[in-house]
UniProtKB/TrEMBL annotation:
Membrane-topology descriptor: Multi-pass membrane protein
Family membership: Belongs to the binding-protein-dependent transport system permease family.
Protein name: Iron ABC transporter permease
Protein keywords: Cell membrane, Membrane, Transmembrane, Transmembrane helix, Transport
ABC transmembrane type-1 domain span: 223-428, 521-713
Top-level taxon in the UniProt lineage: Bacteria
CDD domains associated with the record: TM_PBP2 (cd06261)
Transmembrane segments: 53-74, 86-112, 124-146, 158-179, 227-249, 261-283, 303-330, 351-373, 410-431, 458-480, 527-547, 559-579, 591-611, 647-670, 690-715
Location in the cell: Cell membrane
Amino acid sequence: MLSGNKRLNALLGLGIGAFLIVPWYRVERGFFSFEWPSDFPFSSDLAPGLLQIFAEGRVWLVLALALFLIGGSAHFMADANKRGRLLVVTGTIGILYMALQGLAISFTGWAWTFPETAFGALPLGQPAMGAGAILTSLIFVLFIAFGLAERGFMKGDAFVVGSISILIFLVTVFIFYPIGSMFAGSVQDFDGSFKPDGFIRNMQDPAIWSLDCVIGGNRCGVAWRTLFLAVMTGLGSTILGLAFALVATRTRFPFKKGLRLLTVLPIITPPFVIGLALTLLFGRSGVVTEALDTLFGIEPSRWLYGLTGIWIAQVLSFTPISFLVLIGVVEGVSPSMEEASQTLRADRWRTFWRVSLPLMKPGLANAFLIGFIESMADFGNPLVLGGSHGVLSTEIFFAVVGSQVDPSRAAVLAIILLSFTLTAFLAQRLWLSGKNFATVTGKGDSGAHAGLPKSLSVTVYGIVLPWMGFTIVVYGMILFGGFVKTWGLDNSLTLEHYARAFSVTFQDGALVWTGVAWNSFWTTMEIALISAPLTAAVGLLTAYIIVRQKFAGKNAFEFALMMSFAIPGTVIGISYIMAFNLPPIEMTGSALILVACFVFRNMPVGVRGGIAAMSQLDKSLDEASLTLRANSARTLRRVILPLLRPAITAALVYSFVRAITSISAVIFLVSAEYNMATSYIVGLVENGEYGIAIAYSSMLIFVMITVIAGFQLLVGERRLRRENRVSGMAKSNKIRIAQEKTA
């Protein structure tokens, strides 16, 4: 890292750029379109901060400039303690003032009544924050971070303090602020006055809390119904994920590559497509239903529409996530510990149950927590298969976009969902507290993994093989649907759907993308490829800080990150619209709001996967690097990250796939210019164009498989050196015999 003065010099350079070189306010045509330099700096909308103060009359920005200059003056102070105190004070006041002036002053003047009463009306307002204002806010955050480092916080490690500060800032802006905006609206009347009547009425609604049923039944209150479904989905996906991981790593299964492909397929499929495939198989007119009726006289029923159908679809969809989390954990269990158990005459079953499985606890707990939260937040599967038996996510959707808009009800349901998620999170922490699961250390490790007990091997094969067959059938239905004229009615083969969606022609010697799906396809690929590396980077950096660093409020910080994952995408979409449709931060209709949504919605998977993998890395690895005078940034880059390759791959794959297949939040955030694939497919389904929708989904699956393979080649595999102990002993014996002969 740079020294204190060099860090301040860098911030001063950024500050000069923020006030002189870039527009202070939001560029309507897009900052990265680079159309604005032609009118810069003399246009009132594009003027930099300094001209906004002295030429445009926005005098309230003087205080931001003054605070920046005061903080920059710390460069001339010799005492590190005083320098750090000045940076912390000016940074704290600066970031609070930037937020306050952004919220208090809107397009037309004061946004609040009391400052207008106290100071009088403003002659002009201000647009949303742009590059200059955002860069200045970031500088104030770094003032705080570098000031704390100067005062010895986190042992003076500026990289760690800066990372924590920026992550807290980003979490506040993109998680707490939008959710807070939505909750504030739930207890307000249309004129903005406080009115909690709707909130209280919905909190007491018996339709939410009714227990007049068998637990988990379709007539239960929506809260208990959702909780039961989430627990069952978490258990099912974790058991299946562990079975797949064991078959892939601890058996001689001949089709391991095919197994890995099948475990990835459900996660790279839009959820409503799996629901449609299950309907064609098991619905009242489904292939299996009609076959049972014809062969055995079993009358068709609606058993699929309800919690049973949702559970099948969710386990099918979320098992790959558990597999991606668990495979690195299963591979990381030390063979030497298993060999030590067998040396002490423990059989394979006892070794697995008492040694291997306990070392997998972090992965199992994280896999269950992710499955539980995914089920809570899932929207597509319940929408297609729920019928009249809704869950919290669909109830929130209909409370927002139904015939009677009720934001108070949506907020109440979101609070209930968060309480369930918090309970699961705390239970997981309690289960893992006080235990050490390190299996990868700086010491040599030898031997090969112990084989599975025969009974366990038969069991996992009995789970995996039928599930593989079921998955193949489901995806056969999806693939078949893209090549028939009318799925389920006219099954004659055709290529018409692919031609309409992805046709390409040559006009005037140039390639023209004439298919109706190309526009949303290229937009989706661009946004997904931008958001995936950002999601992985932020998630793994956060995991490093949580596992390796100790600071006040760490538990609250970790839960805040998980909160974005726990809230249904519907609520995320609505809260982003409410928060970012007006100053101080206006992003609606842009690609930036989609990228931000994907990064902070999907980041918890990278965090949980990184925590599970990093729990197995002994801290002596970090300490050895730091002892050799490497700073924390270099240690993270050269020591930790190479050992986290399974977690990096999982974070990249998951974030890329979710950016393409997400629907619940995206459907509120897309625009005519930036239309995502899933919202376009939903529009096709609503218009009855099922063939094109299936063809589009099939193309997305093929593209995602290709990109995922590219990610795996780019990141590579973690190589843990396992020497054969027997060969090592033989080599030692040869040396001893040679020495004896020489003697």
